[in-house]
């Protein structure tokens, strides 16, 4: 910075500056000092991309629509001035042509398209922004294995032969097989085969007809076994899988469901007027049985100040309590018990912490609420008063902040705003982590040399995080300091997140930092933590392939990382 106040270069990391303004009148002078934070990192490129239906598009994703967008260069939060040259390469950087800032580019042809944008500022600094657009307009094709019609006699096992799917660029998962075949009851059954490609194109459904006929010498008693899903429950699956619903007494509602699941096939079951469970193919690690039981009031854990609007339902599985991918649960509830302005929200019960934890869910017009869960335990629907923040409407972080607000991990401000771009301090992030993980509040001193400088509202959270091994502080002059009011960096957040992952069983970190162009700027003390956090999908880099370890984080970024941490820990 020159003496006349002009900034002639930009630091690599955020830099604290003290600016002094002096007013002189004759021999008298008065000065006032101002503390400012000069935003770090060099020239940046920003791109905005949307599909034909107006939805945001992320580089590298597959779509079946055209993609349109534009790019501009910025620094210090505003559009970069004269002297910045923008260029575009369509051959991975071998040749460039001039590109006008914010001019729209449309990509509509099927295939993999690579674009590389380059900006050069007046000082000769350069930065790159890669873009990959993957477009697939052709749906996959399903081919049955075996004959399209199968003939069986009552009592003979039906063996599913499956189907295969072929696509220009790849199929999203296995062929989904649905439809029940009851080999104990004569009749004609249909098994459905569906598949989608990576871009969301759906194949034309293929069907197999299974005819179950009575054997010529069989007696009518063979039909006494009944069909799966009797007594008020139902299932939709393939092969010999099915469901059994148990009733407490004649005419009463069913209280439990046993659902046999083939791990390679999608399965659906329900307890009438209580819950529906949808298990996608591949969700369970192996074949097994899922059981759902409606709990009596005596069996239901204390709900404290929460107002229940449904019975509690406990889910268990013979394959374990966690899954490879989320399972959808749709709950019925008593809408008349909701307070005005409130809505239904699903909570789960944490057995170790002895508390109900907010999940949320999607409220539907038919009076049900649906959530995707990553583990089994006890669930119930409660009355919930949602918080509406105008500055989160349409914000990219809104899906992540909703759950943390419901969990009381993070709150809004008195003016009913969330302020997603406000920076987060080390004390604030430590408190958020302690709340999200349900760490027991501690009245012990943190042990840091600056313990007295930790705000009262953060003391118990910081002490709990220290006790859990999430934070260790900085060693300076033979003493350990926490620095609660210092804004937290991405490297520091990664360390706390990695420590939480380690306490939850660890994570195979691999070697992720080499993928970042600025890997050399990641501090040695944070490198292993960055590896673990990136491997777990909690922290990611930027579109220009940088990590920016020293960059400070906002409330939106902090909420997103904690949300993803909870998902990784199956909490």
Word description of this protein:
This protein is mainly beta. It folds into five domains: 1-40, no CATH class; 44-135, Sandwich (Immunoglobulin-like); 146-225, Immunoglobulins (Immunoglobulin-like, Sandwich), CATH 2.60.40.10; 243-384, Chondroitinase Ac, Chain A, domain 3 (Sandwich); 398-568, no CATH class. Helices cover 13% and strands 33% of the residues. It is built from six helices and 32 strands. It has helices spanning 398-406, 426-437, 456-467, 490-503, 524-535, 555-568, and strands at residues 15-25, 28-38, 44-51, 62-63, 67-75, 78-79, 85-89, 97-98, 105-107, 111-120, 126-135, 141-144, 149-153, 163-166, 176-178, 187-194, 206-213, 233-236, 243-246, 256-261, 267-271, 275-279, 288-294, 313-317, 322-332, 343-350, 355-360, 362-363, 368-375, 378-384, 474-476, 479-481. The longest helix has 14 residues, at 490-503. Mean pLDDT is 82; it is low at 76-82, 217-241 and 245-254.
Search tags:
571 residues, mainly beta, Immunoglobulin-like, 5 domains, seven-stranded antiparallel sheet, six-stranded antiparallel sheet, 32 strands
List the helices and strands and how they pair.
Blueprint (H helix, E strand, L loop, with lengths): L14 E11 L2 E11 L5 E8 L10 E2 L3 E9 L2 E2 L5 E5 L7 E2 L6 E3 L3 E10 L5 E10 L5 E4 L4 E5 L9 E4 L9 E3 L8 E8 L11 E8 L19 E4 L6 E4 L9 E6 L5 E5 L3 E5 L8 E7 L18 E5 L4 E11 L10 E8 L4 E6 L1 E2 L4 E8 L2 E7 L13 H9 L19 H12 L18 H12 L6 E3 L2 E3 L8 H14 L20 H12 L19 H14 L3
Parallel strand pairs: 4-11, 13-17
Antiparallel strand pairs: 1-2, 3-5, 5-6, 5-9, 7-8, 7-10, 10-11, 12-14, 15-16, 16-17, 18-21, 19-20, 20-23, 21-22, 22-25, 23-24, 24-30, 25-29, 26-27, 26-30, 28-29, 31-32
